[in-house]
Amino acid sequence: MSVTAGTVRACRTSLPPVTARQLRTGRRRAAGRRAASPPPTTRCSAGSSACPPTQLRDRPLTAPAQITLLLLKIAAGNPRLVADLAPWAGQLRSIADQPGGTETLVALLTYIERVSEVPVGELHDLAASLGPEAMEAYVTTAEMLQAEGAAKGAAETKAQDVLKVIDARNLRPTRKQRAMVTGDAGLDKLNRWFDRALTAATAADVFKGDED
Length: 212
What we know:
Radius of gyration: 23 Å
Oligomer: single chain
Shape: elongated
């Protein structure tokens, strides 16, 4: 699975959405088991991220929906997340075996990398234990985050260059214009502003057509 700019942008949504279709599918699969199981002691709706993990396991949800809601509940700042996910290895393997499972795992792993405090080595070992599809997702996630970090670093450097040229030429940009440079403008705009700043007569000329 190659890492492209599109892949990076697609995975910035952090987690795969829990769709109504996933909820319905999960309900059908769990209908028999639900009828034979006692009702939970605490009320917990199928789409709620407030479900305790023990109750979430019994909810009529697909594996992607279960893991998504579980991560929303327990992942943030958690250095023991891999240990907490161990009882859910079956659901994670089933995600890997589904059509499009690698992409779903990439989204889940990306979210884990962003919000948890889990050591990288432990996350690698978890993926390896789940099989080749999960390991492929792990490698793809690592490459994607590395590419994203490199792109962010390049953008920050270019933004500094733009401001240095603007200030050196005494073009006096407004606060809004400075914020545009230091914000999430992207390399295309930053390169354009840098080229313009070299010859522009005013700051307005640098940002012409790019201000709202």
